[in-house]
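Posting for a labmate who doesn't have an account.
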Amino acid sequence: MTKLQFQADADLKHAIVTGILRRQPTIDFQSANAAGLEAKPDREALTIAAQDGILVTHDRKTMPTEFGVFITTQTSAGILILSQKLPIGDATLKSRNLGAIAQIIPQCRITTAGSVTILDAQCILKHSSLK
């Protein structure tokens, strides 16, 4: 099984990335700054993330549509959308078991296009028994 890698979008709170890496240093989670995503359009962020794994974003407004268009011509492991209202502590606390997300996918699917599923992270936390 291939190890999942996570790429932070430019709009993702940097404290989430640093908190996750502090709690789980073995998780491969690259900051937007490290990937050069600052001021890049959604399509470019998706292209960069698709090379290595899943894009993690707060962008519920434009990213689902952009992702839907993107996967008509490109391949991607997916995107994870975190609510801006999600407390940073919740996002970092749950990170230690990101692999368990797969067990929760059926209840938290926003949409599916081919083999790619867009998930709602708040739903994942709601249905997760991870503490």
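Reply:
Got it, the structure tokens are right above this. The beta strands are 5-8, 28-30, 54-57, 79-81, 109-113, 116-120.
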